[in-house]
Design a protein that fits this description.
Largest sheet: 8 strands, antiparallel, barrel
CATH architecture: Beta Barrel
Number of strands: 10
Distance between the termini: 32 Å
Helix content: under 10%
Strand content: 35-45%
Order of helices and strands: HEEEEEEEEEE
Radius of gyration: 15 Å
């Protein structure tokens, strides 16, 4: 199975921003998922043990205004189906070295969304490790991508 990460990398490079080196991380940095529950990608990501689709690639970008975007390539859960891409808008807060992330609920009619925060973890200059999740297996380990300037 082949897929291209080029669109994600172009997106990441386009929105990467700079900040001071005294920050524990740099807002606007791009984070690339390395592992889920100790398994390198591709790996099953859903907390539901009966759902076996795997995360093929995943990128998280934090903007300076407290918003973020999660971009994922996910194996089809249908036999013979093509991988699909998903883009999810999010918000986040940081307190010390802890980060809390909440997906934006798109279901305003039925309000069937899981209560936030959806991901909670530790952030530092090397990356993010989400050790609490209401929506995925954990830990989710992201490494900060080093992009050309």
């Amino acid at each position: 199975m082949k897929f291209s990460l080029a669109p994600t990398l172009v997106f990441a490079a386009a929105i990467a921003a700079c900040s001071t080196t005294t920050d524990p991380f740099r807002i606007g940095d791009v984070y690339v998922l390395q592992s889920i529950a100790g398994k390198s990608l591709p790996a099953e990501y859903a907390a539901n043990p009966d759902y076996h689709a795997r995360m093929l690639a995943d990128t998280l970008v934090l903007a300076s205004d407290g918003t973020a975007e999660w971009r994922a390539w996910i194996e089809s859960d249908q036999a013979g189906g093509a991988p699909r891409s998903e883009r999810s808008p999010m918000t986040y807060t940081v307190s010390g070295n802890r980060i809390s992330v909440s997906f934006l609920c798109q279901d305003t009619v039925l309000a069937s969304c899981i209560a936030p925060p959806h991901l909670v973890g530790t952030i530092d200059d090397a990356g993010i490790a989400f050790d609490e999740s209401r929506v995925t297996r954990q830990p989710l380990v992201f490494r900060r991508a080093v992009l050309p300037e």
